[in-house]
Amino acid sequence: MFVRHSLIALALALSATACSPSDGPPLAPQTPLAQSPHFLRWAGDVAPQFSAIGGVAGGTIAATGGAFRASEAVVLGLEQYTATFWAVRGQERSVQINYQSGSDVPQPFLRLTVVDPTSVPGLGDLAVGDSVLISVTVDAESIKVSLEPTGLVFGAPARLQMWYGGAGGDLNGDGVVDGTDAYIESLLLGMWYREGAADAWTRIPAVQAPADESVTSELQHFCEYAISW
Q1: Whole-angstrom Cα distance, residue 229 to residue 224?
Q2: How many separate domains does the chain show?
Q3: Does residue 18 sit within a domain?
Q4: Domain carrying residue 208
Q5: Would you say residue 118 has pLDDT above 70?
Q6: Which pTM does this prediction carry?
Q7: pLDDT in tens, 75-104
Q8: In a 3-state reduction of DSSP, which class is residue 74?
Q9: Are 141 and 41 in contact (CB under 8 A)?
C-alpha cells in the first residue's frame, strides 16, 4: 500500500512538472492585458486658470481683415473649462486656450484650427458656408481635452496642437525632473485618442516639437485627445 501511494504521488509530481510554463509553451496563447497610457498631469496642487482667445462661449467669432478672433480673451469658469466657437465650412477658424499657474504669465496649452467640417452626427452633411458649433473642454487634472460634437467629420483635416509645458517637466509624475523624464520626452511621448469612456486609448500619428514642448496632429474626426506615453 505504501509503495502504491508513493507511485501515485510521483506520477502527480511528474505531471505537474510536465505542465509547467517554464518547460514549454502554454496550452493557450496568453493575451496581454490592455494598458492605459500614462497621462501627463498639471504641475502643482491647484488646477491652473484657463483662458480662451478666438472662441466665445455661446457666441460667434468676429471677422477682422480676414482673420477670425474674439474681441477679448474669455476666462473659463472652474466648473466649466469649456470654450466654444462656430466652425464654418470653407473658412479657417481657430481657438487657442492658454493656462496660467499662480502668478505666471499665460502660456499656450491648445490651438485648434478647423477649415472643412463636412458632416455632423445626427444632422448630416454641411454645405460650403454652413456652420457647426464646436466645444473644447479641458481636463483640470491631466493634459487632456474633449472635442465635440463627437464624430464630427472633416474633408481637410483639422489641426490640433497641444503644449505639455504645464506638466512642469515631470512627465512620469514621480515629483522629480530627471533623466527619466528626458527619455520619455525624446522616445515615448505622443498624441493619444479614444472614442468614448468605454473605449481603449490608441496612439495616433503626430509631430513633436521638443523645443516648443508641443505635439501636433491632423484630425479626421472629433473625440477625446491626450498627450501621453
Answers
A1: 15
A2: 1
A3: no
A4: 49-228
A5: yes
A6: 0.77
A7: 666 557 888 888 999 999 989 999 988 767
A8: strand
A9: yes
**Sequence-ordered strand ranges (E) for the chain:** 49-53, 62-64, 67-69, 74-75, 82-88, 93-100, 107-114, 117-120, 124-125, 131-138, 144-148, 153-163, 190-194, 202-204, 207-209, 214-221, 224-228
Q: What is the CATH number of the domain that holds 82?
A: 2.60.220.30
Residue 42 lies in a domain: no
Instruction: Tell whether 11 is covered by a domain.
Output: no
Residues 6+ apart with CB under 8 A from 100: 48, 49, 50, 51, 106, 107
User: Which residue do the cell numbers 497610457 mark?
Assistant: 37
Q: Nearest 5°: CA angle at 76, between 213 and 42?
A: 35
- Render pLDDT for 8-65 as a digit per residue (tens, 0 to 9): 343 434 343 333 333 333 333 333 334 689 999 999 888 888 888 874 434 433 333 3
The three state secondary structure string of 80-137 is CCEEEEEEECCCCEEEEEEEECCCCCCEEEEEEEECCEEEECCCEECCCCCEEEEEEE
Q: How far apart are the C-alpha atoms of 110 and 133, rounded to whole Å?
A: 18
Check residue 40 and report its DSSP letter. Answer: -
Contact 188, 180 (CB under 8 A): no
Q: What is the pLDDT of residue 76?
A: 64
Contact indicator for 48, 75 with CB cutoff of 8 Å: no
> Does residue 188 belong to any structural domain of this protein?
yes
